[in-house]
Each structure stands twice: as structure tokens, then as C-alpha cells.
Amino acid sequence: MTSALVSEQVVDIFYAAGLKKPDISILSEEFLLEIKNMEHKNVALEVLRKLLNDEIKARMKKNLVQSKSLLDMLEESLQRYHNKAITSAQVIEELIELAKDIENMDEEAKSMDLSEFEYAFYTAVANNDSARDLMQQDKLRELAVVLTERVRKNTSIDWTIKESVRAKLKVIVKRTLRQFGYPPDMQKLVTETVLKQAELIAEELVG
């Protein structure tokens, strides 16, 4: 089968399922229930896989930690299905839960009153148990807001090719983590994650 045919099949999967292509950000309980109750489970599975994969790809351009976590969960569920460890009905249940997880993440950002960029830095600094236990959500939120502002003030579109800019930003990130009492054993790893996140959205931060 040619790649063109495969592409056409993916595009047509929504039509075959009798569905308009939905935006995952407005997935309703009714839509998920409709998917769950579809007679042809292979079609339902492909609809969900396509939706989730597209949404996660879009998030890769904005939120490094969140998109990696979501992609890992998606791939793990699909792998267990392909290995016949779970049934088609079970993998559909798992992908529906993943869709709900994405909705919950968006709701968390809103409830914490964080911008898209601030939430991206929040997920970067909150991505380990010791930080969450030691600092709690409010302090991690404050850290994310301060990091976003300091990164914004000290980055540039071409910073990735200027080692001096990256080195300066690294010092600022380390200093900020220490200032907020971030767990010392996690600071090196989180500094690199924050720098990668900053690089990902550098153009938009300074735009």
C-alpha cells in the first residue's frame, strides 16, 4: 500500500465513521460515548489515535514536558494493544481517558490562571515528586511565572546559535531555582529541561 493511500485512509477515517473531524479541545462526553459505542472498534480506535496524535503533535511546539508525557502514554497503550495484552475495547477506554487527561491539563492551566507559556514552564518544574512534595503547587506556580518573565527578558530569536546567550540564561535559571528553594538534587536536570522549553518557544516569547 502506498503512503498516499495510507494518508487518504487517515483523512477519510472520520467520514467512514460518520463523524465530522472534531477539535479535541472541545471533545464532549457525548462524542466520547459515541466513539466508545461504535460497532466497528477498529474504526473507533483509528479515530481516537488520529485525534490524539494530531493534538499531541501540536502541543510539541509549545509544551515539551506535557507533550512527551502524553505521547508516552499514547504509545504505551497502543503497544500493549498490538501485543494483544489488552483488547480493542480496553485500548479505546484508555485513549478516551487520555483525551480526558488533556482536557484536565487545560483546565488546570485555567484554574491556576497561567498563560500557555507559564503553564509550559510549570510542567517543566513540577515534573518530579520531590519538587511537588517540597514546594507544593502555589510555590511551583510562582516559580513558573517568574521563570517565564526572566526567560522572556533574557532570550532572543537567535539565542540557540549564541552560546553566550544560552550560558547567561542557564545562570539565571539556576539562580531562580535556588531562590525558590528547588530540590538541589533535581536542579541540574530541571535547568536543562527549562532551557529546552525556552528554546522551543523562544521565537514566540520575544515576538
SSE blueprint:
Layout: H1 3-16, H2 29-36, H3 41-59, H4 64-82, H5 88-111, H6 116-125, H7 129-153, H8 163-179, H9 184-205
Helix pairs in contact: 1-3, 3-4, 3-5, 4-5, 6-7, 6-9, 7-8, 7-9, 8-9
If you had to describe this structure to a student in words, what would you say it looks like?
- The protein contains 9 helices and no strands.
- By secondary structure, it is mainly alpha-helical.
- The chain has 2 domains: 3-111; 116-205.
- Helix 3 runs antiparallel to helix 4 (64-82), helix 7 packs across helix 8 (163-179) and helix 7 packs parallel to helix 9.
- It starts with a helix and ends with a helix.
- Residues 1-11 have low confidence and may be disordered.
**Range of helix content:** over 70%
Query: Quick one: how many beta strands?
Result: 0
Number of structural units classed as domains: 2
Structural class: mainly alpha
Mean pLDDT: 85
Features:
0% strand, mainly alpha, single chain, disordered N terminus, 207 residues, 9 helices
What would you say about this model in short?
The protein is mostly helical and about 210 residues long. It is built from nine helices and no strands. It is elongated, with a radius of gyration of 20 Å.
